[in-house]
């Protein structure tokens, strides 16, 4: 079965640079979520999109922006990178099934290292 | 504001023992709860999903219970194996399209 795809898997940037992370949800999933997991921490919700519209916003810095495109893939843009942005970034997708159950499926993550 | 707590933070057991991992949440108005496994530096593997209307879910050696009124879920892993060594996270969701809120996880080591 198709899973959530994230690219790149690893990214190394210098401070003050810009990074773009991409997420391709499971086909027919209409909601995409972004999470950030710092070293030794639990995943923290950043932002989500439903049908290409922002549906919820968490602790996402103003330096970060995200969008969902017409093909449902999503991109997280991160500018003026700081050392503290080094983390694993997960994308997840979901949809509400006819059974009434909605489960979030996670991608493998993008490991961002800021030097 | 929902708070999710996992106790203990770390657990070490000899191979063959049963594992009991606890998760508590402060707001009982949840849509569902998921248990995940995470190996060091790796992604999140979903283990079990329990809807708010359910009391338990089972998959192989894994069993998860949910007591929504008391804000608790327990993950049981029977006959632990060294390959079960990982961090186990629980996460709750308030609405069907909503975000997951994670606990800090329980780091499990199963010694041969």
The N- to C-terminal Cα distance of chain A equals: 37 Å
Average pLDDT figure of chain A: 95
Helical region count of chain B?
0
Main sheet of chain A, how many strands, which sense, barrel?
7 strands, mixed
pLDDT average of chain B, as an integer?
Answer: 95
Supply the number of helical segments of chain A: 0
- The SSE order of chain A reads EEEEEEEEEEE
- The low-confidence parts of chain A are none
Question: How does the overall form of chain B come out from the CA principal axes?
Answer: globular
CA(first)-CA(last) distance of chain B:
41 Å
Radius of gyration of chain B in whole Å, from Cα? Answer: 13 Å
What's the SSE pattern of chain B? EEEEEEEEEEE
Strand content of chain B: over 45%
Structure overview:
The complex is a heterodimer of chains A (115) and B (112). Chain A has 115 residues and is mainly beta. In chain A, 0% of the residues lie in helices and 50% in strands. Chain A contains no helices and 11 strands. In chain A, a hairpin with a 6-residue loop joins strand 4 and strand 5 (44-50). The model of chain A has no long low-confidence stretch (mean pLDDT 95). Chain B has 112 residues and is an all-beta fold. Chain B has strands spanning 4-7, 10-14, 19-25, 32-38, 44-51, 56-59, 62-67, 72-77, 86-93, 100-102, 106-111. In chain B, strand 9 (86-93) and strand 10 form a beta hairpin. Chain B is globular and about 40 Å long. Classes of the chains: A mainly beta (115), B mainly beta (112).
